[in-house]
Amino acid sequence: MIIWVSLAEPMSGRFVFLDRDGILNRDRPDYVKNRDEFIFYADALEALRWLRRRSIHVVIISNQSALHRGLMDWQAFFQLHGHMVREVQRAEGWIDAAFYCPHRPDEKCSCRKPAPGMIRAAASLFSIPLAETAFIGDKLSDVAAAENAGCLPVLVQRTSQSVDVPEHVRVYNSLLDAVRTLV
């Protein structure tokens, strides 16, 4: 598990967990492998700004198996992450921490979603009350990770793609809609 923490602001109060690819930026079937392939959704930067203005801490929880698949090297990974953080700050948003799992599914780690390892590590590190915290993702594995950790599962479906979503899961068309409604 890779952990990145910004120490610029104190970490107490309200939190939200966000998946990265498919929530903040456009996902790709061949993985987001470098900063040129990282394209923000227009509403994502606005949502992050909206959260910061309300003093809600943002923690990224993201599988990044392109690393262990050999599709991306560590230098490109950290350049992409740095680019993302700088662009979010430029838009007056903030990311307080990011937890990344570099493992492939066949490695059977405890951090790869839908396992709750990254969420529980963040909760332990920052004393995050899981039952009061939403995890917003775009895949059913995100929903399962939220449920496995005891968080409120929230799904963002940006297309009209038909997915069998459990009735108790809140579904929104964008990250901005989700955070405005939930907070």
TrEMBL record:
Keywords annotated in UniProt: Carbohydrate metabolism, Cytoplasm, Hydrolase, Magnesium, Metal-binding, Zinc
GO terms, biological process: carbohydrate metabolic process
Localization (cell): Cytoplasm
Binding residue positions for Mg(2+): D19, D21, D138, K139
Residues holding substrate: 19-21, 27-31, 62-65, 112-113, 139
Entry-linked InterPro entries: HAD-like_sf, HAD-SF_hydro_IIIA, HAD_sf, Heptose_bisP_phosphatase, Histidinol-phos
Family to which this protein belongs: Belongs to the gmhB family.
Site feature location: Contributes to substrate recognition: R112
Record organism: Desulfosoma caldarium
Ranges in coiled-coil conformation: none
Residues the record lists as binding Zn(2+): C101, H103, C109, C111
Signal peptide: none
Site (Stabilizes the phosphoryl group): S62, K113
Protein name: D,D-heptose 1,7-bisphosphate phosphatase
Pfam families the record matches: Hydrolase_like
Cofactors that this protein relies on: Mg(2+); Zn(2+)
UniProt xrefs under NCBIfam families: HAD-SF-IIIA (TIGR01662), Histidinol-ppas (TIGR01656)
GO cellular component entries: cytoplasm
EC number: 3.1.3.-
GO MF, one example: metal ion binding
Main enzyme class: hydrolase
Active site: D19, D21
Primary location: cytoplasm
Domain of life: Bacteria
